[in-house]
Amino acid sequence: MTLESNVALQIQKPINEVFDGIVNPEKMTKYFISESNGRLDDGKDLSWKFPEFPEKFPITKVITKGNSLISFVWDPETVVTITLEQLPDNSTLVSVIERGKELNEDNLNWVLENTAGWSNFLACMKAYLEYGIQLRRGAYDFMRQT
């Protein structure tokens, strides 16, 4: 049995704006990461840095399909799939699924932490794309390694 982190949130913006908010590092650095060496485009290998941690995280096996799907690997055991669905009111439903880890005690902690993390990703993206608020700024400074 494999575990799955699964979250969703509706964002009051058209699908093309939400998609660009995810693949465009100039936007993603306003609400999620502090650095990226490129766009999330098909076949790219990137690295992301988060403001709270000194290390960089490799992003591999990037797949995009139109404005509706983004997939990548950032943990060798898991695949992240972000789907976007245009709703009738011109808002966008964003779903994030990360799956692949086998069921065991350590991975139960992983699925809980990553579900919370992806929920935070969606909330921060919503705040930034809808209102220009950088919700993540300063939120995790307590985690910085000194």
Describe what this molecule looks like in 3D.
The chain is α+β, with helices and mostly antiparallel strands and 146 residues long. The protein has a single domain (2-139), classed as Alpha-D-Glucose-1,6-Bisphosphate, Chain A, domain 4 (2-Layer Sandwich), CATH 3.30.530. 27% of the residues lie in helices and 36% in strands. The chain is built from three helices and seven strands, in the order βααββββββα. It has helices at residues 15-23, 25-28, 105-131, and strands spanning 2-11, 35-36, 46-49, 56-65, 69-75, 78-86, 92-102. Strands 1-7-6-5-4-3-2 form a seven-stranded antiparallel β-sheet. β4 and β5 (69-75) form a beta hairpin. The longest helix is centred in the last third of the chain and has 27 residues, at 105-131. The termini are far apart. The model has no long low-confidence stretch (mean pLDDT 93).
List keywords for this structure.
146 residues, alpha+beta, Alpha-D-Glucose-1,6-Bisphosphate, Chain A, domain 4, 7-stranded antiparallel β-sheet, 27% helix, 36% strand
Mean pLDDT: 93
Largest sheet: 7 strands, antiparallel
Binned, the helix content reads 25-40%
End-to-end distance, in Å?
38 Å
Tally of strands: 7
SS content category: alpha+beta
Offer a concise description of the structure.
This protein is α+β, with helices and mostly antiparallel strands and 146 residues long.
Question: Any chance you could write out the topology, listing elements then pairs?
Answer:
Layout: E1 2-11, H1 15-23, H2 25-28, E2 35-36, E3 46-49, E4 56-65, E5 69-75, E6 78-86, E7 92-102, H3 105-131
Antiparallel strand pairs: 1-7, 2-3, 3-4, 4-5, 5-6, 6-7
